[in-house]
User: Which sequence fits this backbone?
């Protein structure tokens, strides 16, 4: 079978998965979820015309020929309701957020006035009707849609939900994800150390990648290279919405996993992607489960999760943003590349006067997890590149540890 | 009191807070935490010299004058131990990851060979000693420090922890955070709608910002503008490691919060920062609690959390990366700015051929939370700028919703 391009394989995966239905969550537990209903305003905000500044509420006609002296008839604070009507020649002292009194149609900022006495103020600037007034409903109007279904619930969105007093609402359900490692060579977390075996890091690294998406995966353990045992494990895995099977580097994967998966009714969509690391990536579906056959190499399987599994899970959760944020970086050194496969190089980012600078995190062997642990991002080398030279620009996908940075990084 | 520069205020905050002690966590619950101990390798990886390729294990001296034909004495798969010693004129077929047999000192890739029969192969390329061999301990050596204390636990780090079978380990404790809203004008989530009141969105927006850092804050509720009630609430808040008090826009903040806080033994470090939105930001400490007095405006308080509270909390959790990731973006349109305060403009990011393009999210009034809900980031206008013109470059801090993006965004 041919090796698919990364984007073609991504498209096949994303065309195969969809949202899984909705559930109600409480506001306090909703961060990171995606709204499955649109949310309407339950009030006008501001509830009436309010002052946008500390100053004086005036009739704009009165101040056309400023400077002019006006009588102060009232003090209005935020939370107060005005009690007096501003007549010609009058004004009310007003605080930011306080309701505009009847009669007034504009606000003069305190810095454009000179208070003459307790009861009179000189206005030194003419303003138009509506100056420094926030109109009723300017922020939101009763019944107006303020958040569309499909909105990801960020802290700012939670602020809006609280503003319209949405104590609970519908969000897309999270997929249930199972993780299975396979291979006789694997040593489980609770097994004694055996130098002839390889510790099963994949179960936990994949678990963490799934947790980072807000999903608590179920760890099925290690299936040995035995068709009966493997079938039992895979049957269990096919009860979930998504099953991640990471194969060993040994015979197991190719000998047992594929035929057993197909025997259990999984329709395979592809088995090879033209990427490095990660090319023995497989994907298939049943009518209820999406199955990813991930490489046994720890780095390879993690890269496949970033490029294929995470976008699929995010789509299932209703997100429209499926891909890692990217930045452009100039290369600190040459990077070799053999034509043929898109390469995802583990890279660290620093900064110089021009912007980001990327350097690779030591050995790029797909067996060396430290390269991934140290990486700020995955630097992408296009398949047809003959290698990149120091100073060239490349695209870097930011990984979890790179959401924050060492320095504030802005000129204040 | 003077208005502090943002960076000066940040430094005061960060000099006032430190890590809070350590606790043990299980590997499965450790994502996002920070290691409080260094982690050593418990084994050599690979455990012996292994092949880095599928091919033939040879004596390099034998292939010096390639092409040469060698006798195949054994097949070694990953997980197998070799049983035969490679003598002069001999080789063993070997799979990636399989142990190098005694006698052999190099691997020839299968593509540099021509198999002649079941028992003989022609080697067409000379290689040096060590070719395509991963040496014992190349990945990690027993006793060697593989992760330093202070490392943030990302999925890649969890892979390393699983590799060395660290089932539990010491991490820095998370701060306990309390959130208090103040002001008569506030309407609680469970109160009936009153058009004369403002819904208390701050409690929930701040909650979500703290949750996004991996901390479950305690919501103290709304303290009214009454010195006795306020004191009770503040006393409760001062039992936590961090107390966030958001004031109303009304008299409450300035009349009661500051004197009550000081009466309760909080030593105030500053009360004003030269930023917009957010300038009435206060910060103080007791011997156990860091207290942030946040503006009542929803956007202002969220910006203050991003710039001051989040870095402080991350430092308390042992992180070395305290600040939001920044990217440079060119402006889609002019942005006005009055000299004097550093401005944090809510901005959306798109992309053109040159890179990121930023545009503001509608009205920048600090009362309009929708601007924050729609923002990908905070675009920073330096205090002394006279305004930015379309096409100029500016720095944008990426917010939570911008960790992922719409498109893959790389050339494959």
Assistant:
């Amino acid at each position: 079978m041919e090796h698919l391009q990364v984007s073609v394989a991504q498209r096949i995966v994303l065309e195969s998965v969809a949202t899984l239905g909705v559930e109600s969550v409480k506001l306090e537990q909703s961060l990171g979820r995606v709204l499955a209903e649109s949310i309407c305003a339950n009030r006008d905000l501001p509830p009436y015309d309010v002052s946008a500044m500390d100053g004086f509420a005036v009739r704009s006609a009165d101040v056309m020929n400023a400077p002019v002296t006006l009588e102060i008839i009232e003090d209005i604070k935020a939370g107060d309701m005005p009690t007096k009507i501003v007549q010609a020649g009058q004004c009310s002292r007003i605080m930011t957020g306080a309701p505009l009194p009847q009669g007034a149609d504009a606000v003069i900022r305190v810095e454009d006035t000179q208070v003459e006495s307790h009861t009179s103020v000189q206005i030194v600037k003419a303003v138009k009707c509506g100056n420094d007034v926030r109109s009723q409903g300017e922020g939101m109007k009763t019944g107006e849609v303020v958040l569309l279904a499909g909105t990801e619930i960020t802290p700012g969105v939670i602020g809006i939900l609280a503003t319209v007093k949405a104590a609970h609402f519908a969000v897309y359900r999270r997929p249930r994800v199972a993780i299975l490692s396979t291979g006789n060579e694997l040593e489980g977390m609770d097994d004694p150390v055996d130098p002839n075996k390889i510790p099963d890091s994949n179960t936990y690294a994949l678990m963490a990648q799934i947790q980072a998406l807000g999903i608590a995966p179920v760890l099925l353990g290690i299936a040995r290279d035995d068709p009966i045992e493997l079938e039992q494990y895979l049957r269990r895995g096919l009860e979930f919405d998504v099953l991640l099977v990471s194969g060993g580097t040994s015979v197991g994967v190719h000998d047992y996993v594929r035929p057993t998966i197909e025997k259990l009714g999984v329709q395979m969509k592809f088995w090879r992607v033209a990427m490095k690391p990660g090319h023995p990536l497989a994907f298939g579906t049943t009518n209820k489960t999406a199955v990813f056959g991930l490489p046994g190499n720890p780095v390879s399987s993690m890269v496949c999760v970033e490029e294929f599994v995470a976008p699929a899970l995010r789509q299932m959760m209703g997100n429209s943003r499926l891909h890692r944020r990217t930045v452009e970086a100039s290369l600190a050194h040459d990077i070799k590349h053999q034509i043929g496969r898109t390469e995802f190089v583990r890279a660290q980012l620093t900064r110089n006067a021009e912007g980001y600078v990327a350097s690779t995190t030591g050995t790029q062997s797909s067996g060396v997890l430290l390269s991934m642990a140290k990486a700020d991002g995955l630097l992408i080398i296009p398949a047809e590149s003959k290698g990149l030279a120091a100073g060239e620009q490349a695209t870097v996908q930011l990984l979890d540890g790179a959401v924050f940075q060492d320095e504030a990084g802005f000129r204040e």
Remarks:
- The radius of gyration of chain A is 31 Å.
